Amino acid sequence: MKKSILICAFALLISVFSRAEDPGRIRGQVTKAGKPVDGVDIVVKEPSLSTITDKNGAYSFDRIPPGKYTLIFTQGENSITKEDMVVTAGTTTQCDVDVEWAVLLNHAVTVHAASRRTERIVDAPAAVAVVEAAEIERESAHGQLPKILETIQGVDSTQSGLYDYNLNARGFNSNLNRRILTLIDGVNMSMVNLGVQIWPWVSSSLSDFASLEMIRGPGSALYGADAYNGVLNITSKDPRYNPGGNLSFSYGEQDTARLDLRYAGSLGRNWHFTVQGSYLESQDFIRSRNESVEYAGLPMEVVPLPDDKLKNLNAKIRLDKHFANGNVLSFEVWGMGDKGWAFCTGVGRVQSKRAYQPLARLNFKSSHWNILAYGYQTNWEGISLGSGKPLSIDTYRLQAELQGFTDFAKGRGRLVGGFSLRREGADTSQTLFLDPKDEHMEALFGQADYKLTEKLKLVLAGRLDFSSLHDLQSGVSVAELQ
How far is the C-alpha of 193 from the C-alpha of 184, rounded, in Å? Predict the structure, then answer.
């Protein structure tokens, strides 16, 4: 039954999103003084096609019949027209524009996570806050990503150690929070066994982050588990649009020392790369409690802290291939490791003695498709400070996802749909549970929205989840935006 549903859904996706080979294409970028401008409306006048530029200022139109076309670029009351753009069969026409107008903030900020495709933040069917690259760079010295988000309206953040954070939205905070799904370029970074975030790893490549999108509210219809209270969507910098390098070193309280390196460039033939790495060494906020406690009422612990410093090492290499038709293929390998990370649990404090995680990601993007596959393995050893017992866990996660999106009714309506396959497992060597776990999850998801008027939009989202952990689950969400 499950396989039949997946096969039927796949056939439907292919029929909806796939069409004949593109007769021609129009691609381009909108910039101001060399910097990308997102949120610009572009209209191809003759066939009445429209789109907006993304965070890189890029846009694209596919399946354009051969001929001459007029493109209109608009943001607020500002407008530029490009006439006589010639499109020939099987080729890509490049149309770049450098504007001089004042960029409007409410038009320029775009988001992706709310509908799983690019749209202006004022059109998104969710409450979304965005932290752009410039602000991330200003805050990157401390190397703690949750601190960048803690001042956002509706975000609830508590901190018990240098990287012991509980992050949630709208007051629903709790220990070992699993209700804010955190994604880095589509990769779910949570620990397989508990679902919590290893914040030293999530924060390790701040210098390479282009934006943080915080959805404050339910996102389960499109994202499934762990998105009950929101989604934190992290996007890395595209090496093609963010070339060059930076090297930074910071030192501060708690004997904190941090080194960050990032360099991006071109290899020729439309190949681009990013090399990024960081190293952190710092004392933590917490202290040993085997001989005394900080204040009355705290429980004594059996063992002292094995490590008095937290150390974190991260290295990443990314390769992008940009094709002539606008498609992009990305491949990335990433290694993370740490020791000394301490965090609170329901049974007392735990400190990490050794942890490392190799990761690989493959992503193909086109104007109507997004195909993502990734996998990683986590090996962790720690100790319970309250009982003195050693803890260990070996986990893995493999996930693949196919997503399609298209417009209809001359751009007034949009459709997003896809399915995902995941397999994950954990072995704790009988320290947390007796037997190894090996589970699988499959899901179908979709969202349709239609602009009824200039100020009113109808949004319908739904999802089906299959899993060896639970029975078939489904959900539908309806919203009207004004």
Answer: 19
Q: Print the domain residue range for 186.
A: 110-481
104: which 2 tokens? 């409007």
Which three-class secondary structure string do you get for 298-336? CCCCCCCCCCCEEEEEEEEEEEEEECCCCCEEEEEEEEE
Residue 442 · residue 473 · CB < 8 Å: no
Give the per-residue pLDDT at 260.
93
Whether 224 and 87 share a structural domain: no
Q: Which of 57, 87, 108 is the last residue of a domain?
A: 108
The helix (run of H) or strand (run of E) holding residue 231 is: strand 230-236
- Tell me the CATH number at 79: 2.60.40.1120
Whole-number pLDDT of residue 1: 54
The pTM (predicted TM-score) of the whole model is 0.89
Phi, psi of 366 (to 5 degrees): -135, -175
Q: Which residues contact 96 (CB under 8 A, 6 or more apart)?
A: 28, 29, 30, 31
Place of tokens 């080194």: 259
User: Which domain CATH number covers 345?
Assistant: 2.40.170.20
Q: How many angstroms separate the CA atoms of 306 and 470, rounded? A: 39
Same-domain status, 61 and 117: no
The strand ranges marked E within 107-222 are 110-111, 119-120, 128-132, 155-159, 165-169, 180-184, 187-188, 209-216
pLDDT in tens, 107-139: 678 899 988 888 888 888 888 999 998 889 888
Question: Rounded to 5 degrees, what are φ and ψ at 318?
Answer: -130, 135
The per-residue b/e assignment along 47-78, b for 16 or more CB within 10 angstroms, e otherwise, is eebbbbbbbbbbbbbbebeeeebebebbbeee
In total, how many domains does the chain have?
2
